[in-house]
Design brief:
The structure holds 2 protein chains of 2 kinds. By secondary structure, chain A is of the alpha/beta class. Chain A is built from 19 helices and 12 strands. Chain A folds into 2 domains: 190 residues, D-Maltodextrin-Binding Protein, domain 2 (3-Layer(aba) Sandwich); 207 residues, D-Maltodextrin-Binding Protein, domain 2. A two-stranded antiparallel sheet of chain B has the order 1-2. Chain B is built from 12 helices and 2 strands, in the order H-E-E-H-H-H-H-H-H-H-H-H-H-H. Chain B is mainly α. The chains are: A alpha/beta, B mainly alpha. At the A-B interface, helix 1, helix 3, helix 4 and helix 18 of A face helix 1, helix 6 and helix 11 of B.
Chain lengths: 448, 309
């Protein structure tokens, strides 16, 4: 009896246990299955194509403009829908690297020129040369921007549409200058003199805000290379010009600004900190690209912000920095390349390009758009365009094609740069050791 | 007999598969947990060990391949590695030491009976409940040269405008230590207070009768009671502080001049920013080994002291 009684009870327990076990496995399997869910851009209702677009810059005003651009495109192309996804500006490459590794990439991306090398090395982007030339875009879009876009890739192909471009300028608070009875600087000597005159440490007002933190290298190049009159990053033998005597001298002048005509907290200042300081009246001048013009105008009003292009060197040579193409790229794994190309074309067309460049504050790539009144009447853009009109001006291209460029100029150079500002390392030693690293990378690239 | 005998083998044949099933039944039950452990623990850790022996840089895939011990050898001549390791050890020692001292003091204080004790306890514990990113934001605002404490001090003539504690060469370390302490002290206080509340009041009363001093009561009654909690809390906190990335990354980004870069932060810069997963994995393996060694030695020492008693 006892055995009989135990039997069914044991069976019942076992069944119950089995059920629990199976349920646990199913739950685990579902959980794991959920982990593997990726981006699906293939499906669409009614046969329409759905494109996935990832943006790497999520400033609110840009997001709004990009969404508007997408809706304008969708109106023109009712059979194509574009899904927008904004990635965190300071960590977007993590998401992209994961997507590449898991083959869950979107159709369209907005990479920076400095990202192209890494993405091409992973064979992640689709070359656009054939489609670009086939569509006659080489005649409709600025050849300088096309050239700059190709120069950013390690194999010289076009991956980033030359939709728009940036250019470096020095912004200044025109109201501060007016109150102090000063006019806009026209030379490097002028610049340093007004930075000094506008500094009043007792009231917390400084002549300039220096980028000592993340992204320092672009500001460093903008302020040092034009001043030195050096128009190339590498000599013919692949040696870096970072330790060129003229570059070292210019860098020393630039570094001397720190603490004297800048806030000490600039040691760790990044873009946001600089903009906040400029906007709050803590700094009278700021170096950045024309892309931030709408941000300054929104914060201060157009009557309080003006811009000048970096000045010619003492020898009279005009070196233009920051002429960086900004556009859209297509992933190699996109299942809708034709539809994605349609979107890319739209961003270069008169309608799309005009809207996007104007709202973003970028130089338009479309040659027709470049003649529109909003371009000719924009002070920051006119400053950049006029600088380029100078026949002797040379555009300085940064070596974004080098795979090591990003790690050298950030992880390796940033701590040393801050040591320079803290007077723990001399400018010459800093530039010499950095030049060695860049030379090594360039010469390795040349041998390939 | 003649009926039973032939049935026996048949019964045993029937039972065999059931017995076999029964033998595997426990394995079947722990299967899901084992699978999850393998997928979420063993595989990631194993893959880090694997990549530490590889050249794996997504920006230079043509160099990818077996590296042997190259990544580990490269650490020897990497000043950033040594700088970050030195800072990490300094950071852990200072943070855990100060958090323990202040956490203990706070726990002893709020263990006393006084009016408003419940409110005081809630206030003491509240920083621990605040998320890491929120903690950072609070301290960024406090240290901001335009809107924070520096500006108000400059307004009354102490210090200069435009100075930030986070960018001064002698102040950065203590500025970040203070921010982290704000969050870490309540952790110690909570754990120690929980143990303090289990100490019988009779023991203190007996000690009072014997005329024991406050220090004697602490050493002979309080400390033995809270010792185990302190061991666990310091070990956990040391591991967490060693692995600290969120506060330092968002507060200083590891700067200025790499002065606040911990080893895990350097790993993040190498693997995530530079996309050098081979070297980043090797750095992670070293961090893993340091932590494992530390945990074993720490537990061994504390256990042997316990045994001696």
């Amino acid at each position: 009896m006892m055995r009989k009684n135990k039997g069914p009870s044991l069976k019942r327990n076992r069944r119950g246990g089995t059920l629990v076990g199976v349920a646990a496995i199913i739950t685990a399997a579902l959980g794991l299955g959920a982990c593997g869910t990726g981006t699906d851009s293939s499906g669409a209702e009614g046969g329409d194509v759905v494109l996935e677009l990832w943006d790497t810059d999520t400033r609110p005003e840009r997001t709004e403009n990009l969404k508007k651009l997408i809706s304008m495109f969708e109106e023109k192309n009712p059979s194509i829908k574009v899904n927008y996804l904004g990635l965190p500006t300071d960590s977007y490459m993590q998401k992209i690297s994961t997507a590449i590794a898991t083959k869950a990439t979107p159709d369209i991306i907005t990479p920076k020129a400095s990202d192209i090398s890494a993405l091409v090395a992973q064979k992640a982007l689709a070359p656009l040369d054939e489609k670009f030339e086939g569509g006659g875009w080489d005649a409709k879009v600025s050849p300088a921007m096309t050239k700059s876009s190709k120069a950013a890739s390690p194999d010289g192909k076009l991956y980033l549409t030359p939709a728009t471009s940036l250019a470096d300028v020095i912004y200044y608070r025109s109201d501060f200058f007016k109150n102090a009875g000063l006019s806009a600087p026209t030379s490097w000597d002028d610049f340093y003199a007004v930075a000094d005159k506008l500094t009043d440490k007792s009231t917390g007002k400084f002549g300039y805000t220096l980028r000592g933190g993340n992204g320092f290298f672009s500001q460093f190049v903008q302020m040092v290379y034009p001043q030195a009159g050096v128009d190339t990053f590498f000599r013919e033998d692949g040696t870096s010009t970072l330790n060129d005597p003229a570059v070292v001298a210019a860098a020393e002048d630039y570094v001397d600004l720190y603490g004297k005509d800048t806030a000490e907290s600039d040691l760790t200042a990044d873009f946001k900190t600089m903009v906040a300081q400029f906007g709050s009246g803590g700094a009278a001048m700021l170096s950045h690209s024309i892309g931030s013009y709408p941000t300054h105008v929104a914060a201060l009003g157009a009557d309080k912000v003006a811009a000048v292009a970096p000045f010619p060197s003492k020898s009279g040579k005009s070196v233009l920095s920051g002429r960086m193409t900004t556009g859209f790229a297509m992933f190699e794994t996109s299942k809708h390349k034709e539809a994605a190309w349609k979107f890319l074309e739209y961003t270069m067309s008169v309608e799309g390009n005009s809207f996007w460049a104007q709202k973003s504050g970028y130089l338009p790539g479309n040659l027709e758009v470049a003649k529109e009144s909003w371009v000719t009447e924009n002070p920051a853009m006119q400053t950049s365009i006029k600088a380029l009109e100078n026949k002797d001006a040379v555009v300085l291209e940064q070596p974004f094609y080098l795979p090591e460029f990003n790690s050298i100029t950030t992880t390796e150079m940033l701590p040393e740069w801050q040591r320079v500002l803290q007077k723990q390392l001399s400018v010459k030693d800093f530039l010499t050791q950095s030049a060695e690293k860049l030379t090594k990378a360039q010469q390795k690239y040349m041998k390939k | 007999m003649s009926v039973i005998t032939p049935e026996r083998p048949a019964q045993s044949k029937q039972r065999k598969p059931k017995a076999k099933l029964r033998r595997f039944y426990p394995y079947f039950l722990i299967g899901p947990a084992a699978v999850l452990t393998l997928v979420f623990l063993v595989y990631p850790v194993g893959s880090v060990f694997y990549y530490s022996l590889q050249h794996s840089n997504v920006t230079q895939p043509w160099n990818d391949g077996f590296a042997g011990l190259d990544n580990f050898i490269a650490m020897g001549s990497d000043p950033l590695f040594w700088r970050s390791l030195t800072f990490t050890l300094q950071w852990v020692a200072v943070e855990v030491g100060l958090q323990f001292i202040f956490g203990l003091a706070l726990a002893l204080l709020i263990n006393k009976t006084f009016i408003g004790r419940a409110v005081a306890r809630s206030l003491v514990f509240s920083p621990w409940a605040v998320s890491g990113i929120l903690t950072t934001t609070i301290w960024i605002l406090i240290y901001n040269p335009s809107t924070g404490i520096g500006r108000y001090l400059a307004d009354i003539g102490i210090g200069e405008y435009g100075f930030s504690l986070l960018s001064g060469s002698g102040t950065t370390f203590w500025a970040v230590v203070l921010a982290e302490m704000w969050k870490g002290i309540p952790f110690f206080a909570i754990l120690i207070l929980a143990d303090l509340q289990s100490v019988s009041l009779e023991l203190y009363e007996s000690a009072d009768v014997d005329g024991a001093s406050t220090l004697r009561k602490f050493l002979s009654i309080t400390w033995p009671h809270i010792r185990q909690a302190v061991i666990i809390a310091t070990l956990l906190r040391a591991v967490w502080e060693f692995n600290n990335v969120d506060l330092l990354y968002t507060l200083t980004g590891g700067g200025p001049a790499g002065a606040t870069t911990t080893l895990p932060l350097y790993v993040a810069q190498t693997a995530i920013h530079d996309r050098d997963f081979g070297y980043g994995s090797a750095l992670t393996v070293v961090a893993f080994m340091i932590l494992t060694f530390f945990s074993l030695v720490y537990l061994r020492i504390t256990k042997s002291k316990e045994d001696d008693k």
